[in-house]
Automatic annotation (TrEMBL):
<feature type="transmembrane region" description="Helical">
    <location>
        <begin position="706"/>
        <end position="726"/>
    </location>
</feature>
<dbReference type="GO" id="GO:0004114">
    <property type="term" value="F:3',5'-cyclic-nucleotide phosphodiesterase activity"/>
</dbReference>
<protein>
    <recommendedName>
        <fullName>Phosphodiesterase</fullName>
        <ecNumber>3.1.4.-</ecNumber>
    </recommendedName>
</protein>
<keyword id="KW-0812">Transmembrane</keyword>
<keyword id="KW-0378">Hydrolase</keyword>
<keyword id="KW-1133">Transmembrane helix</keyword>
<feature type="binding site">
    <location>
        <position position="1140"/>
    </location>
    <ligand>
        <name>Zn(2+) 2</name>
    </ligand>
</feature>
<dbReference type="InterPro" id="IPR002073">
    <property type="entry name" value="PDEase_catalytic_dom"/>
</dbReference>
<feature type="binding site">
    <location>
        <position position="1140"/>
    </location>
    <ligand>
        <name>Zn(2+) 1</name>
    </ligand>
</feature>
<feature type="binding site">
    <location>
        <position position="1140"/>
    </location>
    <ligand>
        <name>AMP</name>
    </ligand>
</feature>
<keyword id="KW-0472">Membrane</keyword>
<dbReference type="InterPro" id="IPR036971">
    <property type="entry name" value="PDEase_catalytic_dom_sf"/>
</dbReference>
<feature type="transmembrane region" description="Helical">
    <location>
        <begin position="660"/>
        <end position="678"/>
    </location>
</feature>
<feature type="binding site">
    <location>
        <begin position="1099"/>
        <end position="1103"/>
    </location>
    <ligand>
        <name>AMP</name>
    </ligand>
</feature>
<feature type="binding site">
    <location>
        <position position="1259"/>
    </location>
    <ligand>
        <name>AMP</name>
    </ligand>
</feature>
<dbReference type="GO" id="GO:0046872">
    <property type="term" value="F:metal ion binding"/>
</dbReference>
<dbReference type="Pfam" id="PF00003">
    <property type="entry name" value="7tm_3"/>
</dbReference>
Length: 1364
């Protein structure tokens, strides 16, 4: 049903009361049949009657206050009479009923019946029966009620005021009319069968304290599980309301397990102590009850339930005197007028009521109870109460009753039903079963016919500091915008409609919080005993717990205060500034002094001994830079100790001075060290220089280059520091470490900026990078003698500094909040770094200089070596003119040296001063014999001296052994006294790259891999060799295979093994008729290896080395090497090494389709194979426009006569061209045909065809190798195929088979390759070489099965039979 809204102004609905003068002499003279006509209209309004003084009120005669008559009944319209008789003081009850009837009668009335076509309106006759103070009032009230019910045949009685409600029960029974009483005590309704027509709309009053009981039980469950909280209930005995209310609380607490419960009863009208004063007024009697309930005991906090009428004033006063601190007080008067009249007593009091304005119940006419009371205020001009709302609800409830009783009736006639006792009984029973929602809340009736639809409204007087609260007296929302706390009677139950949570225990029982104490004097003087009597601790005192006396607030310890505040739980220490300890600052200054003193000592030492050779060859300018850098970086220690309580320009400047000084100092210190290491590395690399590199690219590093390197490092450091200075300069600030209540108790001063950490990381990262580069250079030059290079000392200094920076940086970040630790770490790391550099760099020099001055022969661990090292070291660091000056100083009278060394240096000086002019044959005229002897020897023991001699000859005589054959011959003749020859093919040659391997253990590993037995293995792992040989697989394999057995002999000697050359197997090409020179062969292999394109995934130097080794393994499986000659074996093995040189990583088809220069050059015929063959001989013999001028002589066939050379060249060209995969099937067919002949290996041409077939099989042996080698080669070849496919797609060319990365399946491609290419070819090869059939063919079959299994994973839907 749509809600009807009523206006709130007084003009819309006003009950007109006729002012009639009633002249009847007495109510007993009025006959029952003439009750209503005989009653006059009241001359006062309902509210005015409540305001009459007693003397006027007592003389009031009965009168009609309201007669709302909607008219006569009809066929579909019934008028139901309601009777309401009240005394003069019950104005709100009368006005509430009037309001209810008026809203029901509005419009057509209330529809009832199944079809909702019958309507009901109500006639309300409300009679004021006079004053209850008048004699005989009860009889008059009953007479009027009985008469009106009979006269009007009324089925319903609206109950009168609660305090006289009992007089109507008898009348309801007599007239059998339903009485809706407005009274709460349970005894009123017991037993129900004694008066079945009496119903109660009020909530049972014994439920009032239950919300407080529930809250107490919940609190005890958490804070007092034993539930021995003392509970004291004080109540009047002569009133069922007071007694039943408190007893219900006792019963509920007992049911919850509370054990310490005591009921304190009293008869209010009796005089228990006989002093002539009734108990309800007797201070002594009530005081004793109060003492029993809450005595003067500090730790006794009872929960009090007080069910009294007027006695609570005396009880509360006595409890105040006892300094009682109850857990809670539930008081009947907490919701009465008394609470509004005693604002000082009510805080935190609990109460219970029928209704509270915050309850959000509604009906068809009003959204809430507050709306209803606002409406009645507009109608009647005064603020109503919950009694008005209840009285309003009674006629609403009757209408709900009728609607429910006739909800299925097709022709309802309530008047006819009410006319018979049976009908009235049926209606009574329907009412008993009614459950309905009203503006008063849910209504339903128990067996005693009282309302149990909802619980009572639990309330508590709680503080509202700011915001809105409901004023119960005015039934409206009020606002508190003041700073003072306002206590309002808040709704705390039921929970779903509560305004706020209940407060339990009371503030007084909770004790005092930290920072306060219990002032018992204030407690005794306070009116509100539930308010806390705690007071804040005075200034500079504190408390940390529950204290009961003022002296418990302790004085603040020395060095702390409360910062002028009261009520503190702790005292705040004075701010700890965390200054660096003075003794640490002194220690830092001392460390700086030590560094400064060391710098001064080293500078003075350099100045004093600058003429010494060891000092001169150490490049004193660089050493001075190192000293200067150490001093500059150490200066940062002085600025690290600058500190202040507040920021200032001075400390801000110190913040950036420290990184500037350290950064610049680092660059100046380690730039020269890095440059010296770089120089050493370049010098050492001359031992292993490739023959095709320019001499100019290998020049030494002089002062200018060193200065440039130092400058680059310094520029980068300054750039970072400048960006830091401009973008986010560090400034001094104090960072709060700890604070209490907003007061700083500890702080630390430090330099900070938004991006400081980023710049710090940039500096540290760059410095670590420099140090790491220096460590790498130091490792690479570790074999250079320290007298020559100082690498050992520099390496130690750099490594030590690297560790210091690496460890100090994170510690500085982690310890930044501790100034002392941070200062120690920073100063310590700077000191240790610079101290280590100065100590490790200069102390060994000082010792060596002193030893050389005391004993000239002590110039190193080997005096014989020194004669070569000293001039080499000096000359490599000088220009031509500077070198001459150094030689003059070395030859001075003050420098004692052996005569032989002096003569050698004189000759070097002559070579130097003569320049690099003249004919080649004259270059050796000035070279000492010793240099020539060392440069040409093959002795491993003298290899270091040999390299030094070669260096001097190349730098200062212009003679390069690898390039100037004529000078080589002169040197050899001078050294050995024998006839000149171009190379010694039979000599033992140790590959320089093998000698340069990083460790002895690595050399042993490589030596084992390159042994004759290892090289014959079919499962040889070329990838491991590539890793161990530092990326030189073809050079090492070619040297080991083509140089066997001399290469194996040389490796064993280098590894310390004593084995005779005769004990090794090998091809022995150098000692055969071919006389292949091993040194030249290795140079050639080195160049060929470099010409392979390493970026190719497949066709690179690793593949070439693998093919060479695989071919060698196949040859070793043959009996007598297929009867091949040395020439044939050498030609086929060398062909394997060069067969894919300069392969571009794309196929012949791609070259032809793309019309590349190669395709145009070789007319689309075996394009790449022609290129490989051509390039290999260009490198060996001649000039190529792509390589510039005449190449270094790499002719490995120079000792072979012309006919053999032509034969080798012809066979190699044919073999390389035969690797063209387009010839594969023809080749297989041809070999199968040749095998039909019984003596096919006797024929030279056929034998060469077989050898070429072995090369071809080695070239495609990837899928014939055991896993994982086969899968590694598959991955590489597929990567190269896909790269070609990507190029073809970019160029718009057709994508070659197996080259489309989007469609090609790896497994499918390998299955087809093995089935149709590899397996048939190796089956044929197995017919030639039985070991291939036994060892290799099973591997091929196994790989095929593997790829078939892989295809199931890649393409599970493909036929598993192996079809492609």
């Amino acid at each position: 049903m749509e809600r009807k809204r009523f206006p709130t102004d007084s003009s819309s609905l006003r009950v007109s009361i006729l002012l009639l003068i009633l002249a009847a002499a007495a109510s007993s003279s009025i006959s029952s049949a003439q009750v209503l006509p005989a009653l006059p209209r009241c001359t006062h309004s309902s509210y005015e009657l409540t305001q009459l003084p007693p003397e006027e009120e007592i003389d009031l005669a009965p009168c009609v206050i309201a007669d709302i008559n909607p008219g006569p009944s009809s066929a579909n319209f019934s008028v139901i009479p309601l009777v309401h008789v009240t005394p003069s003081r019950c104005g709100v009850w009368r006005d509430g009923a009037v309001t209810g009837v008026n809203v029901l009668n509005e419009g057509g009335g209330v529809p009832i019946g199944f079809s909702q076509d019958h309507f009901v309106k109500f006639r309300l006759v409300s009679v004021m029966a006079g004053s209850t103070m008048a004699r005989g009032y009860e009889g008059r009230h009953q007479y009027l009620l009985r008469g009106l019910v009979k006269e009007l045949e009324a089925p319903f009685i609206v109950g009168t005021c609660s305090f006289i409600a009992s007089i109507e029960k008898e009348v309801a029974q007599d007239v059998q009319a339903i009485l809706m009483a407005q009274v709460g005590p349970p005894s009123f309704y017991q037993p129900a069968n004694s008066n079945p027509f009496v119903f109660g709309i009020h909530i049972n009053s014994d439920t009032y304290p239950l919300p407080n009981v529930q809250a107490l039980d919940f609190w005890a469950a958490k804070n007092n599980p034993s539930r021995d909280v003392p509970v004291r209930a004080i109540y009047r005995l002569e009133s069922d309301f007071f007694r039943s209310t408190c007893q219900s609380a006792i019963q509920a607490l007992q049911n919850s397990g509370f054990t310490n419960i005591e009921a304190l009863e009293f008869h209010p009208t009796k005089d228990d102590n006989g002093d002539g004063i009734r108990n309800e007024f007797d201070n002594r009697t009530l005081g004793q009850i109060a003492d029993n309930a809450c005595p003067r005991a500090p730790d006794f906090h009872p929960a009090l339930f007080v069910c009294t009428l007027i006695e609570h004033d005396i009880l509360l006063e006595r409890w105040r005197q006892n300094q009682c601190r109850p857990t809670s007080i539930w008081l009947t008067a907490a919701t009465w007028q008394w609470a509004h009249e005693n604002p000082d007593l009510r805080p935190y009091m609990h109460g219970g009521a029928q209704w509270h304005p915050a309850l959000n119940y509604s009906d068809e006419y009003f959204d809430s109870g507050r709306d209803l009371l606002e409406y009645t205020y507009q109608q009647f001009g005064y603020n109503g109460s919950y009694d008005q709302l209840v009285s309003y609800t009674v006629p609403i409830l009757f209408s709900k009753h009728l609607q429910n009783a006739y909800k299925v009736a097709t022709n309802p006639n309530p008047l006819q039903d009410f006319a018979t006792p049976e009908g009235r009984e049926l209606l009574r029973r329907d009412l008993k079963l009614l459950e309905v929602d009203t503006i008063f809340g849910e209504i339903s009736f128990d067996k005693n016919q009282r309302n149990v639809g909802r619980g009572a409204a639990g309330t508590q007087w709680l503080p509202f500091e700011r915001g809105e609260f409901i004023d119960v007296r005015r039934n409206e929302v009020q606002s508190n915008n003041q700073s003072d706390v306002v206590f309002a009677n808040a709704l705390v139950s039921p929970l779903l409609q509560a305004e706020t949570s209940i407060v339990l225990p009371s503030p007084s029982a909770e004790g005092c919080n930290e920072g306060s104490f219990l002032n018992r004097t204030a407690l005794e003087n306070s009116s509100a005993i539930l308010l806390s009597a705690c007071e804040s601790c005075p200034i500079d005192t504190y408390s940390a717990g529950d204290y009961d006396a003022a002296e418990s607030c302790a004085e603040c310890p020395t060095g702390s205060t409360t910062k002028g505040r009261t009520g503190q739980s702790e005292c705040i220490p004075d701010e700890e500034l965390n200054f660096i300890l003075p003794r640490l600052l002194i220690g830092g200054y001392v460390l700086f002094g030590i560094i400064a003193a060391l710098c001064l000592i080293t500078v003075m030492w350099l100045w004093t001994y600058q003429g010494q050779v060891l000092v001169r060859i150490s490049q004193p300018p660089l050493l001075v830079l190192v000293i200067l850098g150490c001093l500059i970086s150490s200066l940062s220690i002085l600025f690290l100790g600058v500190q202040a309580e507040f920021a200032s320009d001075m400390v801000d400047a110190a913040c950036m001075a420290s990184p500037w000084l350290y950064g610049v100092g680092f660059a100046v210190t380690f730039g020269p060290l890095l440059a010296k290491l770089l120089r050493i590395m370049l010098v050492s690399r001359r031992r292993n220089i490739h023959v095709n590199k320019s001499v100019n690219s290998q020049r030494a590093v002089g002062i200018r280059e060193v200065s440039l390197l130092v400058g680059i490092i310094l520029i980068i450091e300054v750039a970072i520091l400048t960006a830091w200075q401009i973008d986010s300069p560090s400034q001094w600030s104090r960072e709060v470490i700890e604070e209490v209540d907003g007061f700083v108790t500890e702080s630390v001063g430090r330099c900070n900026s938004d991006d400081q950490f980023a710049y710090f990381c940039a500096l540290a990262g760059f410095q670590l990078l420099c140090l790491l580069a220096a460590l790498v250079l130091a490792y690479q030059t570790r074999h250079i003698h320290s007298d020559f290079a100082e690498s050992g000392c520099i390496s130690l200094a750099v490594a030590f500094t690297f560790e210091v920076v690496l460890l100090a940086a994170p510690i500085i970040v982690l310890a930044r909040e501790n100034n002392d630790v941070s200062y120690i770490v920073r100063v310590g790391s700077i000191f240790v770094q610079n101290f280590a550099v100065l100590l490790l760099l200069f102390v060994p020099k000082m010792i060596r200089v002193r030893e050389s001055m005391q004993d000239p022969s002590k110039r190193g661990p080997n005096s014989e070596r020194q004669s070569i090292y000293l001039p080499v070291a000096a000359l490599t660091n000088s220009t031509w003119d500077e070198a001459a000056d150094i030689l003059n100083q070395m030859l001075g009278e003050d420098n004692a040296m052996p005569e032989e060394q002096r003569q050698n240096l004189e000759k070097v000086k002559a070579v130097l001063l003569s320049g690099n002019k003249g004919k080649k044959q004259n270059k050796m005229l000035h070279v000492p014999k010793g240099l020539a002897r060392f440069s040409t020897t093959n002795s491993l023991k003298l290899s270091v001296k040999k390299q030094s001699s070669l260096y001097i000859l190349r730098e200062y005589a212009g003679i390069d052994i690898a390039k100037d054959s004529s000078e080589t011959e002169v040197m050899e003749e001078s050294a050995r006294g024998s006839s000149p020859m171009s190379d010694d093919p039979g000599g033992v040659y140790l590959l320089p790259e093998f000698e340069a391997l990083p460790s002895h253990a690595t050399k042993i590993k490589v030596s084992k891999m390159l042994s004759w037995s290892s090289l014959k293995r079919w499962d040889f792992n070329i990838f491991d060799l590539c890793h161990l040989s530092d990326g030189n697989p073809l050079l090492f394999v070619g040297w080991a295979v083509l140089g066997s057995p001399h290469s194996q002999f040389a490796m064993s000697g280098a590894c310390g093994e004593e084995v005779a050359l005769e004990d090794f197997e090998g091809y022995n090409f150098s000692s055969s008729d071919l006389k292949i020179p091993m040194h030249t062969l290795c140079d050639y292999l080195r160049v060929i290896q470099d010409d392979y394109i390493s970026s190719n995934p497949y066709h690179n130097e690793i593949h070439a080395a693998d093919v060479l080794q695989s071919l060698h393994a196949l040859l070793q499986m043959c009996e007598d090497h297929l009867l091949a000659s040395n020439l044939e074996l050498f030609a086929i093995l060398l062909s394997a090494a060069v067969h894919d040189v300069q392969h571009p990583g794309s196929s012949n088809a791609f070259q032809a389709n793309a019309r590349t220069d190669l395709a145009l050059t070789y007319n689309d015929n075996s394009i790449l194979e022609n290129k490989h063959a051509s390039h290999s001989f260009v490198r060996m013999f001649g000039t190529d426009s792509n390589f510039g001028s005449k190449l270094t002589d790499l002719n490995i066939l120079r000792n072979v006569d012309a006919s053999k050379l032509a034969n080798i060249r012809s066979k190699m060209i044919k073999a390389v061209l035969h690797t063209d995969m387009s010839l594969h099937f023809k080749t297989v067919s041809d070999i199968k045909g040749e095998m039909m002949k019984s003596d096919y290996l006797q024929d030279d041409e056929t034998r060469w065809d077989v050898l070429m077939y072995l090369l071809h099989m080695a070239d495609i042996s990837g899928q014939a190798k055991p896993r994982p080698l086969s899968t590694l080669w598959t991955d590489r070849v597929m990567d190269e195929f896909f790269a070609q496919g990507d190029k073809e797609e970019q160029l718009g060319l057709p994508i070659s088979p197996n080259c489309d990365r989007h469609t090609t399946l790896k497994a499918d491609s390998q299955i087809g390759f093995i089935k149709f290419v590899i397996r048939p070819a190796y089956d044929v090869l197995g017919g030639i070489i039985p070991q291939v059939k036994e060892r290799v063919v099973p591997i091929v079959s196994d790989n095929l099965e593997y790829w078939m299994e892989q295809r199931k994973i890649e393409s599970p839907d493909v036929d598993s039979s192996g079809g492609v």
